[in-house]
Design goal:
By secondary structure, the protein is mainly alpha-helical. The protein is 65% helix and 10% strand. It is built from 7 helices and 3 strands, in the order ααβααββααα. The protein has a 3-stranded antiparallel beta sheet with strand order 1-3-2. β2 and β3 form a beta hairpin. α1 runs antiparallel to α6.
């Protein structure tokens, strides 16, 4: 097997493992990985359109639409008309969504700790430096 194939296989396994860890952490809260990603984006920027969420989360619009519907039903987000473009709406956090922020960051921190458990700080810095070259 070529080194580039090994590289690809490791990334595939890493992605699958990461997703499994995230879903295990989120399962008791009845929230999906995409839902959490959307909430994290909204914690950073108070208002985004569905298109902006789709682009930044690297998730197609239909999956984002389903996730937004679910989050809205749970009263974590609300939609309001975009003042510049009446055909679109902005997604904002509700008070309940803002209250979930601490829990969301706690989940993320726990997953990061599991992810980096066998790595030194220097290892992590090296990995970040190398992966930054990939420009993804």
């Amino acid at each position: 097997m070529e080194i580039s194939e090994k590289f690809f296989d490791i990334f595939t396994k890493l992605g699958q493992w990461r997703l499994k860890q995230v879903e295990k952490a989120l399962n008791p809260l009845s929230i999906s990985h995409t839902d959490l990603h959307i909430l994290m984006l909204l914690y950073e920027k108070e208002s985004l359109t569905q298109e902006e969420i789709s682009s930044q989360a690297i998730v197609d619009r239909s999956n984002v639409g389903r996730a937004l519907k679910k989050l809205e039903k749970r009263n974590l987000i609300a939609k309001k008309k975009n003042s510049r473009d009446k055909r679109t709406f902005n997604v904002i956090l509700t008070e309940k969504g803002k209250e979930f922020k601490e829990e969301a960051y706690k989940i993320k921190k726990n997953i990061v700790q599991i992810f980096a458990a066998n790595l030194s700080e220097k290892d992590i810095e090296t990995i970040i430096k190398l992966l930054s070259k990939m420009k993804i």
